[in-house]
What does this fold into?
Amino acid sequence: MSNVEFSPSLMTMDLDKFTEQITFLNDHVGSYHIDIMDGHFVPNITLSPWFIEEVRKISTLPISAHLMVTDPTFWVDQLINIHAEWICIHAEVLNGLAFRLFDKIHEAGLKTGVVLNPETPVETILPYIELVDKVTIMTVDPGFAGQRFLENMLDKIVELKTLREENGYQYVVEMDGSSSRKTFKRIDEAGPDVYVIGRSGLFGLSENIEESWAIMTQDYFEMTGKKVE
It folds into this structure.
């Protein structure tokens, strides 16, 4: 039986089936992944704190907000106000802000996350890694769905797990990008705690979310030999 958590990326869901898809997934996943992009950090704009509030109306699952923004302070304040359980910020914009923002998030009773772009090494976050509740490894270039899977990024997952074991850190390790039948085997070998799953791995498999979930879990079993709870 698999102990990993699947966290659907709601940027890739079918918005015309919002209620149907969220209602079904509420009974099958551990959290939701919501991308917030400002059109500057990445050349795209998507979702918002307002979208999180809409999800809240029909779900009590934890929400992980992935901030792809140039001004994290502005967005952290908004996300604290609506009580997003996880607030995940890119390492590339945290220099000079990390300790202040992480303290603010923790003081609000929420969890911190740091996200690493493919070009950003794990060493970048070592000065504050003990304050982090989750580390997300991007296995694609950020900002768009359907990007090419960058297999070498899985080495960072192994590195983070080793650091965690050697130092007693408590962070969760998450992977984000092109999690699907084609990549499940290699991802499983690296062993992240959380798979962010989007269009290629879930929402694009069928027009019906129940059928999509069945296909996804079967794909995962066939590629890894592990059943999804």
User: Anything to note?
Assistant: The mean pLDDT is 93. The longest strand covers residues 32-38. The beta strands are 5-8, 32-38, 45-46, 63-68, 86-90, 111-116, 134-138, 172-176, 194-197.
